[in-house]
Amino acid sequence: MGYQAFTSSIDALVMGRKTFETVLGFEIEWPYTVPVFVWTSQLREIPTSLEGKVQLISGNAVNLVQQLKNAGLNTLYIDGGKTIQSFLEEDLIDEMTLTTIPVLLGSGIPLFTPSNKSIPFMCKASQHYANGVTQSTYKRKDR
Amino acid sequence: MGYQAFTSSIDALVMGRKTFETVLGFEIEWPYTVPVFVWTSQLREIPTSLEGKVQLISGNAVNLVQQLKNAGLNTLYIDGGKTIQSFLEEDLIDEMTLTTIPVLLGSGIPLFTPSNKSIPFMCKASQHYANGVTQSTYKRKDR
Q1: CA torsion angle for B114, B142, B4, B64 (degrees, to 10)?
Q2: ipTM value of the model?
Q3: C-alpha distance from A13 to closest chain B C-alpha (Å)
Q4: Consecutive 10-residue averages of pLDDT for chain A (143 residues)
Q5: How far apart are CA A67 and CA B83, in angstroms?
Q6: Closest Cα to residue B131, out of B95, B104, B103, B91?
Q7: Nearest alpha carbon to residue B103 among A69, A53, A123, A34
Q8: CB distance from A99 to chain B under 8 Å?
Q9: Residue of B51, B19, B143, B39 lying closest to B86 (CA atoms)
Q10: Does B108 touch chain A (CB under 8 A)?
Q11: pTM for this structure?
């Protein structure tokens, strides 16, 4: 569903601790080819097997983006529920890909949390797949 | 955006009191050509100008659908936030058209309320418009 093509266009991946630990828990080979930054104030070290592939990073989201930009990493893929929410809250998201599995779950963790800002996007592309899933790409308006 | 084509395929419209009062508040000519049923336990009468066009209906959603079916009204368009939620809660929705205006509002009334059921849908069609809006049609799975 376009994930391969997408990841080839990014400079680095930023994920939260929980997502990182979830990926580790899969016990598969490390799946990322781009540098991964784990955004955490809690973790102190990473498994030695991931040295050179994963770095820990902390501080606020705005500084984090600036820090990576200074290192030449401009196109960032932001992953993980809370991490995405923090980046949205700071209006740091230029583009979102939403893949909708159309099941009304009834409960769970919402993707978008309450905020006192409203942020306009534009739908750039939308398609649906034979398995009933929809994927839409939204671009931040006026950017 | 396909609304005209859509309404020509329905037998009747069911809306809640709030939606009904909102439409009345527009002070435009009555916009519906199909019979409208206002689902309310509160309203007792309708404006005389709408007699023959609007009927009040009460009772639970399952009975309401049965009642209209008995009257030969099979394809119902369900309108209004709370009304839609009640119908979803009873798994009475066969098809949903979701039009997404891609603005993260930050707050407001959610379309889907907490429930203890999960209900599977399939995406039947999805398109995006030049104005940045997406419209997707979801069909209840296994129906």
Answers
A1: -60
A2: 0.76
A3: 23
A4: 73 96 92 94 94 95 96 96 93 94 90 90 90 91 91
A5: 49
A6: B103
A7: A123
A8: no
A9: B39
A10: no
A11: 0.81
